[in-house]
């Protein structure tokens, strides 16, 4: 499947390109992002970005994941990433995202997540879209709630990062919930 470009009022969500590597590395040099995301190492290198982009391209080719660069319309700045990982057999998908720290608390993550939810239901024909966050990152939960997702529960000792087990909070939205909102 060809990955589309999605547009919102303030954002363009497009496939990543190799020339995005310097901006990716710049945004992910903040230890706060590494602490709040499962797969972002710190420090983050150009090689990390190349490896990550190659993995995202493989997922796109297999149809198991679509990762979008989150770009501000006003100046073309790459401010983050968001992905959707569909499971077509079960008509559901997981989503994940990160936003560079200079762009926090401006509604960009919520705007991007709403666009991905719309894409999942309207284009991919999904029934359920879910996301989770570390318990220590309640701001991500607020993003999910603002996008219409509902808290479903606590996943205890769900992952292991930085030498310890981490609890996650699970959120989801069903197609009928989304249709009632739109």
What would you say about this model in short?
This protein has a domain at 6-128: Gcn5-related N-acetyltransferase (GNAT) (Aminopeptidase), CATH 3.40.630. The chain contains six helices and eight strands; from the N terminus they run E-E-H-H-H-E-E-E-H-E-H-E-E-H.
Core attributes:
Aminopeptidase, alpha+beta, single chain, 182 residues, 6 helices
CATH topology assignment of the domain at 6-128: Aminopeptidase
- The succession of helices and strands, N to C, reads EEHHHEEEHEHEEH
From the coordinates shown, what is the CATH architecture of the domain at 6-128? 3-Layer(aba) Sandwich
- Uncertain segments of ≥5 residues (pLDDT<50)? none
Mean pLDDT, rounded to whole units?
97
Radius of gyration, rounded? Answer: 16 Å
Q: Could you tell me the number of beta strands?
A: 8
Helix content: 25-40%
Which helices and strands appear, and what pairs or packs with what?
Layout: E1 6-7, E2 11-15, H1 21-27, H2 31-36, H3 46-62, E3 66-72, E4 78-87, E5 92-99, H4 108-123, E6 128-134, H5 138-146, E7 150-161, E8 164-174, H6 175-181
Parallel strand pairs: 5-6
Antiparallel strand pairs: 1-2, 2-3, 3-4, 4-5, 6-8, 7-8
What does this structure look like?
By secondary structure, the chain is an alpha+beta fold. Helix content is 34%, strand content 34%. It has helices at residues 21-27, 31-36, 46-62, 108-123, 138-146, 175-181; strands at residues 6-7, 11-15, 66-72, 78-87, 92-99, 128-134, 150-161, 164-174. An eight-stranded mixed β-sheet has the order 1-2-3-4-5-6-8-7, with helices on both faces. A hairpin with a 4-residue loop joins strand 4 (78-87) and strand 5 (92-99). It is globular.
């Amino acid at each position: 499947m060809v990955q589309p470009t999605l547009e919102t009022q303030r954002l363009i969500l497009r496939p990543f390109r190799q020339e995005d590597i310097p901006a990716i590395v710049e945004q992910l040099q903040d230890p706060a992002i590494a602490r709040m995301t499962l797969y972002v190492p710190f420090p983050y290198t150009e090689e990390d970005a190349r490896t990550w982009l190659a993995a995202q391209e493989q997922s796109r080719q297999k149809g198991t994941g679509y990762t979008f660069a989150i770009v501000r319309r006003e100046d073309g700045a790459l401010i983050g990433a968001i992905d959707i990982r569909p499971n077509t057999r079960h008509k559901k998908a997981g989503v994940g995202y990160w936003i560079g720290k200079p762009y926090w608390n401006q509604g960009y993550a919520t705007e991007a997540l709403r666009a991905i939810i719309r894409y999942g239901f309207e284009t991919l024909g999904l029934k359920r879209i879910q996301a989770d966050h570390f318990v220590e990152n309640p701001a991500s939960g607020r993003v999910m709630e603002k996008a219409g997702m509902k808290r479903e529960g606590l996943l205890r000792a769900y992952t292991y990062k930085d030498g310890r087990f981490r609890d996650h909070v699970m959120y989801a939205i069903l197609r009928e919930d989304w249709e009632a909102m739109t």
